[in-house]
TrEMBL record:
GO BP term, pick one: phosphorelay signal transduction system
InterPro entries noted in UniProt: CheY-like_superfamily, Sig_transdc_resp-reg_receiver, TCS_response_regulator
PTM-bearing positions, type 4-aspartylphosphate: 63
PANTHER family hit by this protein: RESPONSE REGULATOR RCP1 (PTHR44520:SF2), RESPONSE REGULATOR RCP1-RELATED (PTHR44520)
Response regulatory domain: residues covered: 6-133
Record lineage: Bacteria, Pseudomonadati, Bacteroidota, Flavobacteriia, Flavobacteriales
Keywords of this entry: Phosphoprotein
Pfam families: Response_reg (PF00072)
Gene3D superfamilies found in the cross-reference section: 3.40.50.2300
Superkingdom of origin organism: Bacteria
Record's protein name: Response regulatory domain-containing protein
Amino acid sequence: MKTIKNMTLIDDDDIFVFLTKKAIESTSLVELIRVFGNGLDAINFLKEHREDLNALPEIILLDLSMPIMDGWQFLDQFTTLAPKIDKKITIYICSSSISPSDVELAKKNNLVSDYIIKPITKEKLIDLLKNIIEEI
């Protein structure tokens, strides 16, 4: 069975990260999960490893509200970085914000595949992972 080699969670909510990792690990659909507590650490990792395709994630779950660099700032930085990366990285915003303006802004960004409102169910997470696996 095909799997996702690398997945990245960019979120500062320890409980969400813990529960999401446990749910993903129980599926055996993802080989490696990297976690960053803010967008700056994540964007620096992507910049440092942009030529190492094995280190780059196939999927990113991105929170919007974080310290240091929030999700919107991460997306701004990623927009300039993405053309320099020779790998498709699928980004899902995973936020507790139900603000229509946040949802609309996310839908306008062609790098964002979907906007998922927390909490995310295990079933929704499994469906999301299976859809990514079908694409790769």
